[in-house]
Amino acid sequence: MAEMKAVVKTKREKGAELLTIPIPKPAPNEVLVKVKATSICGTDVHIYNWDGWAEGRIQNVPQTLGHEFSGEVVEVGSLVKRVKVGDFISSETHIPCGHCPQCLTGQMHICNELKILGVDINGCFAEYAVIPEIVCWKNDPSIPFEYASIQEPLGNAVYATLEGGGINGHSVAIFGDGPTGLFATGVARASGASEIFVIGKNKFKLQIAKKMGADHILHTDEVNVYEYIKEKTHGVGTDVVLEMSGAAVAIENAFKVVRRGGRYTAFGIPSRDVTLDYANGIIFKGINLIGITGRKMFQTWIEVRNFLSSKRLDVSPVITHKIPLEDYKKGFDILNSPESECGKIVLLNK
């Protein structure tokens, strides 16, 4: 039986192991992909560290980690029609059921019975991965493997930034200096934002935000975010707020700095319950509050492909590390460092 290397969560505790396991066989509605590049997500870090979220969420151990990737199709199931051997693909990581009310009304990304690659089923931190045809995405051949591997989080940023009418000519405050917040900075700049404020806690990442097009980078330990933005916007606030961090203080400040009648986009996930000034922060300000999860299937993917293939958006500053799959522990160690000097870490197969 043919075998492959894979990064597997083998125990319900911190860590993962590089194992040699059988290459999976695709079901009739699945394809087998030779993984070229796969990137580490914050979700992968939660699972690797086996924190409270992972302990309550992950049901299947052992399980191969990872959900962001690009690769080449090497085998297709008997019922697969849309994808063929040799196609260069990535994958929408949210796998829909196809028959719930959301799926039937164009909202597959919030399917009632959603399964997630690398969370509910085996993932792509491996030399090969099995992917359902319904979530296969054919890539533009001109897009490099490492760029194609980060389309899933880039799609989060595109969806969050553009949902609700776009941002051309608008001022934008982006709370969060993680990869998705950094991608959102580039999307906002490429989409015509007039002024971009990026708020974070990591000086290295804030410098990446500058490269991605931020006009103002605000370190939360060094500046009063509310007062600074209030002054720069002549007391009005920003037209758009993208809350990408989930930190309680960021959520509170984000509601303060969004202008009356502005848009507040919520993407970051809090680690605990958050208290809001519901009346003054939302109702009396008349803001448009939008919740973002995943990516629209497949409107967002089309937008991501267009940004990358047109080279209107340069994501290279965010991809700070490219290392072999076998060195996955190094990648997780970097991401777990309190002052990690990294953006997106991509794992490469030979």
Summarize the structure in short.
The chain has helices at residues 42-49, 52-57, 101-104, 145-148, 151-162, 179-190, 203-211, 225-232, 248-257, 278-283, 299-309, 328-336, and strands at 3-9, 17-22, 30-39, 63-64, 68-76, 88-91, 94-95, 115-116, 128-132, 136-138, 171-175, 195-200, 216-219, 238-243, 258-266, 288-291, 319-324, 344-348. The chain has 350 residues and is α/β, with parallel strands linked by helices. It has two domains: 3-150 and 318-348, Medium-chain alcohol dehydrogenases, catalytic domain (Quinone Oxidoreductase, Chain A, domain 1); 157-291, Rossmann fold.
Strand and helix layout:
Blueprint: E1 3-9, E2 17-22, E3 30-39, H1 42-49, H2 52-57, E4 63-64, E5 68-76, E6 88-91, E7 94-95, H3 101-104, E8 115-116, E9 128-132, E10 136-138, H4 145-148, H5 151-162, E11 171-175, H6 179-190, E12 195-200, H7 203-211, E13 216-219, H8 225-232, E14 238-243, H9 248-257, E15 258-266, H10 278-283, E16 288-291, H11 299-309, E17 319-324, H12 328-336, E18 344-348
Parallel strand pairs: 11-12, 11-14, 12-13, 14-15, 15-16, 17-18
Antiparallel strand pairs: 1-2, 1-4, 3-5, 3-9, 3-18, 5-6, 6-10, 7-8
Helix pairs in contact: 5-6, 5-11, 6-7, 8-9
